[in-house]
Amino acid sequence: MILDLSSFDWLTVDNFALAVVLLSLIPSVVRVFIGPTVMDRIAASDATGNVLVILFVIYAYARGSEFLFDIGVLLAIVSFIGTVALAKYIDRGDVV
Amino acid sequence: MDLSFIDGAVLNEIRMFVGHLFLLLGVFDLLLGMIGLIRFPDIYNRLHATTKIATLGAIFVLVSILIRDGFSPMGLKAVAVAVFLLLTSPVAGHMMGRAAFNIGVRPCNQTVVDVNVKCAPETYKDNEDFHEGAYVEMDPDGKDRDEEGRYDGGIMPGINKKEIKEGLTGKVSDDAENENGNEDSSEDKSENGNEDKNDSQNEGKNDNQNENQNENRDAA
Question: How many CB pairs under 8 A join A and B?
Fold first, then answer.
């Protein structure tokens, strides 16, 4: 072959997706810092949690280990609970 | 029926190709949501963009893992996470939008209001769950809107703790409507609104302190 692809083993679809997910963490963190209102920051942190879920899920598949998948499950649950608690606190000044 | 012409390796290739396609679709939706989060002018528009990350993006990625890995432990966990995200992400988005509306975050000034927002408290007053004063009238006199119903000079006030308390007690401070109306970016407006607000708060504190001192002198 003219082009030896065996030296490009790292260039898989999973690694490309991981790179894109890591790059898209940047705008959400930027919005957490520059958000004009509190709700912008909360929405951006919720989006950050979802992006981290996607990141750990793809990484768990690329590593082939289902134990790393549990981190994604845990992050999904904790992100949802935190978002709902913050939104209720901002809404009516009390969580419960 | 003779199915011996089907090659298992070819089927496997097709399965992996479809899985990769779903993965790239999910990552593409993630990128679109992030562009919306950083570019849209308003909290409501940003929520519209970012809830798509959890539903479309994450669920496409999880479906791609299910397709490529089959009903292994990882694939079943992917199904569980997909169902969980499909159930909880709209709830979280709705609660964030509701909280933003209740504490009085204004929409951007390209927003056109079709229905008068003043009708909301009267419809909710008979409801027992309506806690008193949670609703902040966004535009009680209609003076922020021009003839076409557009908000001109509507700002998105920076929310601090005092403003949340005012929102919970139903009082809208007049300082939230600042004077610099015709600027382009909403972030600059909110920063200016913050400064004005802090200045007025400090003035109010100083006034209170002066009054207290006068009272103390009178008592003495």
Answer: 157
Residue A67 class from Cβ within 10 Å (0-12 exposed, 13-18 middle, 19+ buried)?
exposed
Spell out the per-residue pLDDT of chain B, length 220, in tens: 777 777 788 888 899 999 999 999 999 999 999 999 998 888 888 999 999 998 999 999 999 999 999 899 999 999 999 999 999 999 999 999 988 887 777 777 666 554 444 434 444 444 444 444 434 445 555 555 555 555 443 333 333 434 444 444 444 444 444 444 444 444 444 444 444 444 444 444 444 444 444 455 455 4
End-to-end CA distance of chain B: 108
Other Cβ atoms closer than 10 A to A19: 11
Distance in angstroms (rounded) separating the CA atoms of residues B165 and B112: 28
**What does pTM read for this prediction?**
0.65
Residue of B nearest to A67 (CA): B74
Place of tokens 């400064």: B195
ipTM of this model?
0.88
**Buried b vs exposed e over B132-159: b needs ≥16 C-beta within 10 Å?**
eebbbebbeeeebbeeeeebebbbbbbb
Q: What would you measure as the largest C-alpha separation in chain A, in angstroms?
A: 67
Cβ contact A30–B38 (<8 Å): yes
Question: What are the two backbone dihedrals, phi and then psi, of residue B116, each rounded to the nearest 5 degrees?
Answer: -65, 125
For A38, the closest chain B residue by CA position comes to B159
Q: Which residues of A touch B73 (CB under 8 A)?
A: 66
Domain range list for chain A: 14-92
**Tokens encoding A14:** 């999973």
State the smallest CA–CA distance between residue A15 and chain B in angstroms: 11
